[in-house]
Write a structure and sequence with these properties.
The protein is of the alpha/beta class. 41% of the residues lie in helices and 21% in strands. The protein contains 16 helices and 15 strands. The strands form three sheets. It has an eight-stranded mixed β-sheet with strand order 9-8-10-11-12-13-15-14. About 1% of the residues have low confidence.
Length: 438
């Protein structure tokens, strides 16, 4: 199993910082493994007593009584009574703790809270209360059913430290599989980096990734949103997979759904379903940004799956569009390394052959921003074709600013400069070099 050093270091750096640590991410990306195996092993090497690391799996039937928030609170305090010792509490699947009406208002009876109840006790109250205990360091994970991980972070606002996991990065994938780099890229493009899929054979990988939607992701969303149109959710997910990297909005997706299913789905429903996918960390959006006007354009945006294997599973692993997949991988890797990523665009007034002025819109695949570091990226198969070269390079020439401009090519190329001074580099070399200065 991968060591996941990036995330392990985040946990180490946030140790005993006075805040509960909330570990989020799409289901099956390794949250529990990071906490209960990797971080626990680290604590033991630092001299922490084994009995001072308390792991409570709230989805386990033997711990069902601790889904009552008051009993959970009582249990943890009973385990941490020695104020001279430090305790580390790992609460797995925190969303299984139910919310109750304040017992002071129910003569001490335990009554499940309704959505409109105001005086309630939830796991949030328990966690925030326990975090005030100087000898307790809290770590929690949540999955995406009754309480989505993204909602958990919202509940805690600025009173928790979030550590957000993604599936394996390309560098992690290479280290784990020990494959030759270019071969690793093609495998990564096809089956992605979900930790429990990586070391399976091809048939097992594809079955596993397909089943994740049916048995885990869709089930969670349907349960939480109380959806009745499961088929619509399924079809919209497939449409998003087909249209990865295309400019989309709710109206366009609604029309595409109509052409595919021969039935109507409202723009509001489309928006709601997309939000559900985003809340479950299945997809994320890249907004359009006017590189000259310096403002966001909200009419359309692009969507990328958190893992290319999951994206391809929606299309039954038919031969993928390499351009779409490479865009998806580069997007995910930039996000993994802390960049804010948007789709760049701008308008240019140009003369036609007969002298007329026309407005042309140009696009840059990605504008990536991290601190003071900004770069523009174009992704292409190669630059050997003159027409392709002009298409990829022209937006950079027209922008004529000081921002670093990079052309990523899908073949082994060490970093070099093309004739206009723009950086050219192979995608593998770029991906593996992204984290070297971190």
């Amino acid at each position: 199993m991968s060591e996941r050093p990036k995330y392990l270091n985040q946990l180490i750096n946030s140790r005993q910082n006075g805040f509960p640590k909330v570990i989020t991410g799409i289901r099956r990306c390794g949250k529990s493994y990071l906490l209960k195996e990797l971080y626990r092993a680290y604590l033991l090497t630092q001299g922490v007593k084994e009995n001072n690391i308390i792991i409570l799996e709230l989805d386990d039937a033997k711990n069902v009584s601790f889904r009552n928030p008051l009993k959970l609170n009582e249990f943890i305090l009973s385990k941490c009574m020695n104020k001279n010792e430090q305790y580390y509490i790992f609460l797995d699947e925190i969303q299984r703790v139910y919310t109750i009406v304040n017992p002071d208002l129910t003569d001490g009876k335990i009554v499940l809270a309704k959505d409109d109840d105001k005086e309630i006790v939830s796991f949030v109250d328990v966690i925030l209360g326990l975090s005030h205990e100087s000898n307790i360091d809290l770590y929690i994970t949540g999955s995406n059913s009754r309480m989505l991980s993204s909602d958990i972070v919202t509940e805690f606002r600025d009173k928790a430290t979030e550590i957000h996991l993604q599936p394996l990065s390309f560098a992690e994938f290479c280290l784990w599989t020990k494959m030759e780099k270019q071969e690793a890229l093609y495998e990564f493009m096809q089956h992605g980096g979900m930790p429990l899929a990586v070391l399976k054979n091809q048939e097992e990988k594809e079955i596993y990734l397909k089943e994740l939607f049916k048995t885990t992701y869709f089930k969670d969303i349907i349960e939480r949103k109380k959806l009745r149109r499961e088929e619509a959710l399924d079809e919209l997910c497939t449409i998003l997979a087909t249209c990865t990297g295309e400019l989309l909005n709710a109206e366009k997706l609604s029309k595409t759904f109509l052409s595919k299913r021969k039935e109507q789905i409202s723009k509001e429903t489309v928006t709601s379903y997309i939000q559900a996918f985003e809340d479950a960390f299945m997809i994320s959006e890249a907004k359009r940004y006017d590189l000259k006007g310096r403002n966001f354009i909200n009419s359309t945006r692009k969507y990328y799956f958190c893992d290319t294997g999951l994206r391809n599973a929606r299309l039954d692993f038919m031969y993928p569009d390499e351009g779409q997949i490479l865009e998806n991988i580069v997007y995910n890797e930039l996000v993994y390394h802390g960049y804010s990523v948007n789709v760049g665009c701008f308008d240019s007034i140009e003369k036609t052959e007969d002298g007329k002025s026309v407005r042309k819109t140009y696009e840059v695949d990605f504008m990536a921003l991290k601190g003071n570091n900004t770069m523009y990226l174009q992704i292409t198969d190669n630059l050997s074709n003159a027409q392709t070269r002009m298409r990829e390079v022209r937006p950079f020439i027209l922008l004529n600013d000081q921002i670093k401009k990079i052309i990523l090519i899908n073949r082994p190329v060490k970093e070099t400069k093309e004739e206009n001074g723009f950086t050219v580099i192979g995608i593998v070399e770029f991906l593996l070099g992204l984290g070297k200065n971190e």
